[in-house]
# Entry
Amino acid sequence: MKAPLLSLCALPLLALTPSCAVVIGNDGYVDGAYGHGDVERAVCVITGTAGNESVSGTVTFTERAGGILVEADITGLTPGLHGFHIHEFGDVSGLDGKSAGGHFNPDEEKHGGPEDRNRHIGDLGNLEADSTGRATYSRFDDEVRLSGRRSVIGRAIVIHADADDFTTQPTGNAGGRVGFGVIGVAKD
Ligand SMILES: [Cu+2]
Ligand SMILES: [Zn+2]
# Structure
């Protein structure tokens, strides 16, 4: 029932309101075409963007009751805070990281900090690198999902040059993109 219903609704919307059509298409893509309903763990291998080749590491997403445990271990950063986000597209073909698009935001919220009630799903806050350039992160997130319309599978992680201020729209003024990777289904 769901698929025919969506197509009937989507046809007039496609013609009249492009923004609505994008949302409906997005749902169909994540829920229907790929069916990641049983994914319990995802992984993202980070590489440096052009000029930032020292950046590397791993981000993992592990399903827990009511949300996802997000853990990261990244090296090769400059000491200090770096915006840490899930971006919309798992497209890392552009060496500057821009092909990953903007923050993953299926609910059309404003940009914010990870603990804000209103935030992009992709707003994971900041990584804090120590004097050696290593940053670790471990946080339970109740917005991120590994299935359904909030699924982050196939999206990208982007690490920025500067701190996310959690306020400036729509990006937190976090500067250029120094590292990125695609979030994929993890092997066990
Ligand atoms: Cu970002
Ligand atoms: Zn955001």
